[in-house]
Here is the input.
Amino acid sequence: MSTLRLEGVSKHYGPAKAVDRASFSTPSGKLVVLLGPSGCGKSTTLRMIAGLDTPSEGRILIDGFDVTGIAPAERRISMVFQSYALFPHLNVRENILFGVKVRKEPAADYDKRLTRVADLLGLSALLDRKPSQLSGGQQQRVALGRAIIAETKVCLMDEPLSNLDAQLRQEMRREIRTLQLKLGITMVYVTHDQTEAMSMADQVVLLNAGHIEQDAPPADLYARPASVFAARFIGTPPMNIVVVPGRPDLKLGVRPEHVRFVKSGGLPAVVQSAEYLGADTIVTCAAGGDTIAARVAGRQELREGAGVRLGWTPEDSHTFDAATGRRRDDIVPVPV
Ligand code: ADP
Here is the structure.
C-alpha cells in the first residue's frame, strides 16, 4: 500500500506549458482519475510519474520519498498503455511473466503468482495462446495481468480501454475497479471519458490546458463544479450556462436534468429541437440569446417553434463569475 504525491510539477516544452504546477495526491489503495480533453496534459503527467519524462520543476513523492530523479525501473511502478504492448511471439503466460523475469525476481513463486493473477482475470484456460488468438478484451486482461503480477507500489493506466467497443469498455471498467479495490492497488488512471471517470474514481483530477481545474470526488464534481469548464465537462448534455438579467458580471448554470417545463412563471422559451433517447428526451430551447437544453423523462412530443416555460429550483442552480469562469458561492440564486 502506497501513497503518491505531486508537488508543483510542471513540464515545459519551450514556451509551452504542457503541465503547469500540478499538485495532487493519491492516497494508499485509492483510484485517482486524471480527466480532461485531448492535449490537456494527462499523458505528460503520467509519464512524469512513471519516470519516462523529467519534470521542468516540482517533486514527485512515493510513500514520502522523492523519486523525481530516480530511474523508472527503480520507482516500483507498473504501467498499462492504450496499445496493450503485448509481445506477439510470446504466449499469455510468457507475456504476463515477462517483467517479473526481466527483473530477475525469485523463480520459486512464479507459478503461484501466475495462477493467482490468471484466476483473478479469467485467463487460466488461455495461458498457451498467443495474443493474435485472443479477443480485444482478453488482450486487455493480459496487459492488466502483467501490471498486477508486478505487485508494484503504484499502477498507472493511460486510456487502457480506448481500443475496445462501448459495451466491452463498460465491462472492463467495472472489472478494473473491482480488481483495484480487491487488491488495494494505488492507481492513477488517465481518460478523456467523463463517464469512465465518474464511475471508477475515488477522486477526479480535472485538467484544462495543463493546469488542475478541480480535484474532487465524482459526486462533488457533479454537484459543485468549481468553474464553467468543470460544469460543462461533466454531464451530458453539458450544464446550460446562461446570462443573469441585470448582472453582466455573472453567469448562471443549470443542468439539463434540472430544467422543468412549468405552466406559469419561469422563463419563456421556444423549442428548437427534441431528441428522443428512449428513457428520456433532450429538448433544446431558445430563451433570449441563450440556448437551454432540458432532459425530460419519457417521450416528449414537442414541435419546433412551440412556446414553453422553463423553470428550476434555486438549489439546482450554480453561479459563476462571468470574467474568470470560477464558481461564486457568495451569490444567492433567485428562483426562475
Ligand atoms: P493529453 O494526454 O491530455 O492528451 P499530453 O500530455 O499528451 O495531453 O500533451 C499535453 C500538451 O503537451 C499538448 O499540447 C502536446 O501537444 C504537448 N506535448 C506533449 N509532448 C510533447 C513534446 N514531446 N514536445 C512538445 N510538445 C509536447
